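Tokens for chain A. Residues wanted.
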């Protein structure tokens, strides 16, 4: 998949934006009295289906932006799988809220994006070996 026409600064700014968004959705705050992170996804899942659908749209935006950054189709499918599992299981009353707090689909997806970018960067830096 071709990388969108981002210059290096725009690309870095976009990645930072996606990191902040994933943090807001999955781990922005701590549950009082614990070290357990929670974000809007866990809070919104208190309202089954509706809350998870709203945060699912934002999670899908993260995947869309990953596609614009050139993430391969196989990785995008894994990312969409994370979003789908988060939405489906997260929509179950009570259990889904607990699942959302633990699963952190958006953090997982940002890890996949970072891994892709590191592989891409490594491939660009790696010198070509010539046979003598």
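Reply:
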């Amino acid at each position: 998949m071709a990388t969108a026409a981002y210059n290096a600064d725009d690309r870095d700014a976009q990645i930072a934006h996606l990191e902040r968004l994933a943090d807001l959705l999955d781990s922005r705050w701590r549950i009082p009295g614990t070290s357990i992170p929670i974000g809007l996804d866990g809070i919104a899942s208190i309202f089954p289906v509706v809350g998870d659908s709203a945060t699912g749209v934002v999670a899908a935006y993260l995947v869309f932006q990953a596609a614009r950054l050139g993430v391969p189709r196989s990785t995008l499918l894994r990312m969409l799988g994370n979003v789908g599992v988060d939405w489906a299981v997260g929509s179950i009353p009570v259990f889904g809220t607990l699942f959302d707090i633990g699963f952190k689909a958006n953090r997982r997806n940002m890890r996949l994006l970072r891994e892709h970018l590191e592989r891409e960067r490594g491939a660009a830096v790696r010198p070509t070996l010539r046979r003598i």
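Residues 8-123 form one domain. The mean pLDDT is 90.
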